[in-house]
Specification:
The chain is an all-alpha fold and about 110 residues long. The protein is flat, with a radius of gyration of 18 Å. It has two domains: about 70 residues; about 30 residues. It comes from Imperialibacter roseus. This is DUF5668 domain-containing protein.
């Protein structure tokens, strides 16, 4: 994504966040407590990176924010979920390598 488009998306992102906080300060809407946490900041930065074309860092930032936010939202223990994380990482590496092998075979 070009620099001007990244600025446009960042500007839109900041406008939306600013409007949400303004509406909360004016008691027009009530935002959940977890909206004001550092974990949501990571998720927001991840979403911004994902939307502006930097998908890998966006996914990583949003994932880290979600992992740290989940225990506060629901009964969540990382010990129960880490095998799933390993499976996702392994599948990602497997399919990425498989696509490269298929492309090399077609050449």
């Amino acid at each position: 994504m070009e620099q001007s488009q990244r600025r446009l998306v960042l500007g839109l992102f900041l406008i939306v966040i600013g409007v949400l906080f303004l509406l909360r300060n004016l008691d027009i809407i009530d935002l959940p407590w977890y909206f004001h946490t550092w974990q949501m900041l990571l998720i927001g930065l991840g979403a911004f990176n994902f939307l502006t074309g930097n998908r890998s860092s966006g996914f990583i930032l949003a994932g880290i924010g979600a992992v740290f936010l989940l225990p506060d939202i629901m009964s969540f223990n990382f010990r129960d979920i880490w095998p799933i994380v390993l499976i996702i990482i392994g599948a990602s590496l497997f399919f990425r390598n498989r696509n490269r092998t298929d492309e090399e075979a077609s050449n």
